[in-house]
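Amino Acid Chain and Its Fold in Token Form
===========================================
What this section holds: a protein sequence and its matching fold, both as plain text.
Structure line: whole-number tokens from a learned vocabulary of local backbone shapes, matched to residues.
Purpose: to set a sequence beside its fold so the mapping can be learned.
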Amino acid sequence: MFKRILAAVDGTDLAEEVLETAIAISKRFDSDVHVVHAVHEGVLAGLLKGDDEDDGTVMGPYGPVETAEADDAGSVVRRMREHAEMHGTEITVHTPEGSPGEEIVRVAVEVHADLIVLGAHEKSLVRRLLVGSVSGYVIENGSVSTLIVKPEP
């Protein structure tokens, strides 16, 4: 039923849950797993960042003292590869630049995905009105089934 699954991940802890869900489905259907992490550098990129994502900067009394790289594309990809390896699954990773929703839909078409798995974060009404929802965009514009993974309460 599902031969190619696309797991859309970001820099949050929910990314592992999304990938685990995609891997579980892939094992059931003997599917290939593709992972997409879109890097958005546009004007509204700061607004697109989740409430649970910080910028990785630790402030000291005289300014930044260290910069964590937990959310940069390379770190996210490394985490996803390690997580997949831990589950004995090979993944193909895509790191396009652009609007996350648009890039997820584009990569899904490019790899002929049968299913998109992505996470949904709680967002304020103002943020949803200003920048929308990546999961909402994918549901409306994607041409394949979409599975939404919500964070555990």
